[in-house]
Urea ABC transporter, ATPase protein UrtD
Amino acid sequence: MTTIPQQLSPQKLLKTGDANPSESQFRRKLRNLVRRDQVFDFLKPQYHPLLDTRHNILLYIEGVTKSFDGFKAIDDLNLYIREGELRCIIGPNGAGKTTMMDIITGKTRPDEGQVWLGSNLNLLNMDEAEIANAGIGRKFQKPTVFECLTVWHNLELAMAGERGVFDVFRARLNGAQRDEINRVLEQVGLCNQASLLAGNLSHGQKQWLEIGMLLMQKPKLLLVDEPVAGMTHQEMDRTAALLTSLAGEHSVVVVEHDMDFVRSIASTVSVLHQGHVLAEGSMSEIQSNPQVKQVYLGE
Ligand SMILES: Nc1ncnc2c1ncn2[C@@H]1O[C@H](COP(=O)(O)OP(=O)(O)OP(=O)(O)O)[C@@H](O)[C@H]1O
Ligand SMILES: [Mg+2]
């Protein structure tokens, strides 16, 4: 049985007004640690505390224009993403889908227009890091996981709140942090692969791990560019289920060319063409839209 040394007994630790400063410092730390009225930083959502989504709109893109050498890649683009919605963006090559994501994440600055997160965070006044901290996570097409680390360590590294590479090997996780990693492992379907090196995962599993790494940051908005390129049919089905399960708690914007996949996640679809929204609606509405048929579906 473990015995508490006399000098660390709970009564003594919680006693106030000690003359010994290091001991009282220690008591204060311990008292803070067991407080029930606080939420630890790593459990807090990372999105901006001032984010105001009372109007149920998480992302506003209004009148955005961006030219490259005189060519309008984005042309008077208006797009509104509701809280918790799963939106698919489709459109021909060069329609401006990736440029739109670059603008949302601060990688590219538009020439004109407004981009807001909630009704009060002006993303055009923020840099890329600030935008990420405000709650926008982006998944690029190519998975960017640390192949020489295990799946678990990849998630640990991505954990909200600073955990550097060396902490992963040195500093122990507490129970709540482990629970959080297990929750994300379950969400992305990689519980059985937790101790595998990420380099040994299949292409699809790497994509899910990367989505898991984004989830560790507790984003409000997830931007996912062509998630199923190169996946098997089975992996596509699992990705569809994963993205659908994330909606509600997160808003998810998926850019994808694969029509079967878009159909399978059955969300609102926006068709981008020459830098602006040509049509918006359910997949069946989109498919029967004559303009969309002409420019994109080629039917
Ligand atoms: N940095 C840049 N400099 C010059 N032109 C660019 C730049 N980024 C994008 N463009 C141009 O803007 C247009 C839109 O490109 P974008 O990559 O956004 O299209 P997309 O809809 O993502 O296409 P895809 O379906 O092929 O991925 C293209 O004509 C592209 O060549
Ligand atoms: Mg693109």
